[in-house]
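Objective 1.3, modelling of assemblies. Example input:
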Amino acid sequence: MRGAASGEVMLAVRGLGKSFTLHLQGGLRIPVLAGVGLELRAGECVMLAGPSGVGKSTLVRSLYGNYRAEEGEILVRHDGAWVDLASADPRTVLDVRRRTLGYVSQFLRVVPRVPTLEIVAEALALRGTAAEEARERARALLLRLNIPARLHLLPPATFSGGERQRVNLARGFAGDHPILLLDEPTASLDAENCAVVIDLVREAKARGAAILGIIHDEDARAAIADRLFPLTPLQDAA
Amino acid sequence: MTPGTLLSARGLSLSFGSIPALDGVDLDLWPGEALAIVGESGSGKTTLLNTLFGAQRPDAGIVRYRDPAGHVHDVHAMKRPMLRALHRSDWGFIYQEPRQALRMPVSAGGNVGERLMAQGTASAGALHYGRIRAAAIEWLREVEIDPARIDDLPRTFSGGMLQRLQIARTLVTHPRLVFMDEPTGGLDVSVQARLLDLIRTLIARFAIAVVLVTHDVAVARLLADRILVMQAGRVVETGLTDQVLDDPHEPYTQLLVSSVLQA
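Predicted structure (tokens):
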């Protein structure tokens, strides 16, 4: 991967705060995150820890720019410079997602007719890989995740839930992004596919990717995490 | 004009009698970017689209457009012939009702070739005709219409085919900016899915900038990089499509997102 020396800080979060205001519930305000600070380095895998409802998913989505941070900074090393995702304009956020910040989740938004192979190859093409090489690598990754070749040219719309989930994992890992956010990548996977995901995370770490996310499965978490980042409930969240 | 933008609008206001259709709307669009305008009927989204396109004059405000040579034009100050030339070359408009754009007594191939002929890009005589026909065949293929249908009249086409024919007719001149007004509205769900996928593929492949009006937030999510939520002629919320739809801040946007039926 380009430019990132091992151990270099790739993501720095400072004073991050996030609440939700539910206007349809009389303006109810739900504070979720306050004063969150963390650093993530190249080649490191940090997993979020804390009870259900503490805001792990909100944090991951905020770091991706899917949820809009209210307070603080989300500094991402993008093309060798710092970009603050909390204040960046939409086009910059899209460029950071395309080339620097990958998101691996189980949730696939199906575009009705796009073949599986193209869905995965697109993630590579967006980062500048030539079309044929992108397809070749996409094919290999799908096979590793036990999506047989006869399914590669079909759109995933008709696949089982587990197959779709693995297509999305292939797409998430295919881009080789310098920073990867994991959002429950092993949820409801069988042991064999879970082991493949663990290997993929280890390989990403070995090439210097900085990885942060959520994995509920304790064995999987122990297998990949260098350290845990504990999130504690906000006092006023009760 | 904001640096690098293809289209830039400032302070657009327009009233129909006492009803404000547009109230101080600002908007920027960059090359190759897809922007969705969402909101309920009567929110002003189609009026905004028509105003940006130059078909509807605002009471106040300005729409600026940067041409391929880098010159900036005030869309509503352009002379009519120049605006018409723009509408059939660097810009396009996809209507919900394809019959509004298509010439029904003219063959499918004739419909696709018309914008090219109007541009007068090809040279005269047989070569001229041959090139236009070749381009028509190529574009029928692009929109998945059997080129054997080139001499058929549009009235023999299904609703989905008519919409694809309108897309071919519009994109044949390689516009950099296409305006779309509910392009998949009124079609069966399966036909709609195919059309959305086709539009998504074509705008990505040819790096076409799009301003898309839709009442369907799922269509916006599939096609648009950015979204602009309108209510009573005002822009109430704007941002990345997934941000606005997954973390809506404004009461109206929250209502819009929560009203979507889950399939």
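The interface with chain B takes residues 20-24, 61, 65-68, 90-91, 93-94, 109, 111-114 of chain A (CB under 8 Å).
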